[in-house]
Amino acid sequence: MATAVKKSPVKKSNSHAKAASHAKTKHEVKTNGQTSQSNGAIRSVLKEKRVFKPSAAFSKNAHIKSMAEYERLYAYAEKNPEKYWAEIAENFHWFKKWRKVLEWKLPYAKWFVGGQTNICYNALDRHLTTWRKNKAAIIWEGEPGDQRVLTYLQLHREVSKLANAIKKRGIKKGDRVAIYMGMTPELVVAVLACARIGAVHSVIFGGFSAQAVADRINDAHAKMVITADGVFRRGNALNLKSVVDEALVNTSSVENVIVYQRTKAQVHMVEGRDHWWHELMDLASDDCPAEKMDSEDPLFILYTSGSTGKPKGILHTTGGYMVHVANSHKMVFDIKDDDVYFCTADVGWITGHSYLVYGPLINGTTVLMYEGAVNYPNWGRLWDMIERHRVTILYTAPTAIRSFIRAGDEWVTKHNLSSLRLLGTVGEPINPEAWMWYYNVVGKKKCPIVDTWWQTETGGIMVSPLPGATPLKPGTGTRPLPGIAVDVVHKDGTPCKADEGGFLVVKRPWPSMLRTIYGDNARYEKTYWSEIPGMYFTGDGARRDKDGYIWVMGRVDDVVNVSGHRLGTAEVESALVAHSAVAEAAVVSRPDEIKGNALVAFVTLKDGFEGNQTLKESLREHVAKEIGSIAKPDEVRFAAALPKTRSGKIMRRLLRELATNGEVKGDVTTLEDFSALEKLRQQEEEE
Ligand code: WT7
Question: Which of 325, 425, 453, 555 to mutate to test the pocket of ligand 1 (most atoms within 8 A of CB)?
Fold first, then answer.
């Protein structure tokens, strides 16, 4: 049993922790109540005293058994990072060994230079010569309740066949393939088939709109799209193929579309361009040797939001990504051969790439994969699946945990969850109350929680407890993994003192770091490597407590985390101003109990348009159409004018305060026109 060694209620202290003493920064921190901001300095207001040590029983069987062992490993990696990573890389299959572990020309890294490998080979072929060939690789459940199991051997066969099928349709090493599918095993097959032949996959989340799909296809110049007729979600069959059809009207690079039949929805097949998955598979040979890939050959592009309107194509390469993702998966989730590992993330996000597909399969893990909504047909669905499949490890997001809390404990407690031994979270800071609920109600006080901090850009987990070693505190990802040089620093790069708020950075390259933004080195350099000299800038604010634990406070740029999904407010703004009625738009976030953050759009209208309820609704729909429903503003407010500085910059901080507290207390001295703010405030009172 894990024990609480120290217990005291969560205090949200109003006496701010010491403000960063350095010069004012242009950044502002805006998060879910853990931070406050004034005069540009980052302050942390969350104080959490409870500590939960791993039980002796858990530690005894864990890969890393004690804090002393962690400290040794961490110090070893600090002393000679290249040696540390090379020793881990030895555990994988390389067709040819690397010449050099790291080539670092800031900000461009190459790992395992000269090495040749194939990540699909490591995820599948390697297991076929062991007893794992008949082990379940994927246990899958469709939303309607249908189930399938694919062993490693069966998955290998499917992947080999699809790899041959896409080769036959002209896809070669280095070509980009867009994948737009629901969560069926075929999505994993498509990803691995690309990796097998060296095609660069770009998975597009199934919730994105036709416009967003087209933008991503165009940016990557994708030659092929792999999609499905549809997907089941909340009891409905959503049509995916029609979205692709609409997207392809605005693209010119795609030559072939492969369509997996899932829902049997009516679809329109374009002669010569569109092919049924099952027809191609029937003809394909199951013998497809894995392509020898250079360690630095691109593996995938995954688009994510930044602080400008255009999504960034984060580029990951082969060898380094494989090494860190598989190793971190094994360490953080303490993976054993008899585990049933359930990751609820969609493969459309990085969590699905790294910790549903690549990490687990490379480690020969049995993965539970689920197609639909975790609350369909009711709030018991997730817990019912855990009970039936005897899941041992659950990896999910704080937003899901908060919605389960709201739904009521009975949905959880009526199921036998005794198979669970480890819980994980990812995507946003978890509030201590949600952490305690997860720990007590789901984990019955016996499962450690790994709160994993990382990003699309980092490829793999950077900060996380090691469950058999690290004493846990609710709300923190605790310490960096060995080999990962995370720190909290001032704007000039000097380290912050304990409990002093600052910027979360990485001081040394790590194997699974992004290599660039696809087609845009300048943006890569500017976004990640120019904010803080010589270091990778994460975009997050954080503090390190006296035990060296890292408390992530949230984004310091114009990026917002809504239900664990990253959204650029600028992206939503540009969608809004594309609407014929809109003159100007400013999108900000306010804390939300379930979603972490909610989006509030302040909109000024063009002459002749009236701000009424119908227009509000059509603006929300418009954003859904331009980007996807995940980006729909929760609230639209019409304004006569937006508060701006004398130089014309919209003062989003004021709008944020207004959206959150209904009033503005902060400094308004740079405001150009006070009446704009006053009008907004009055309107708030009227509503
Ligand atoms: C941003 C990255 C990593 C996969 C999912 C999101 C926030 C992520 C945590 C955590 C506090 C977290 C950060 C980060 N974030 N995990 N455990 N604690 N914040 O990937 O879309 O690239 O977003 O999510 O703000 O920068 P992403």
Answer: 453
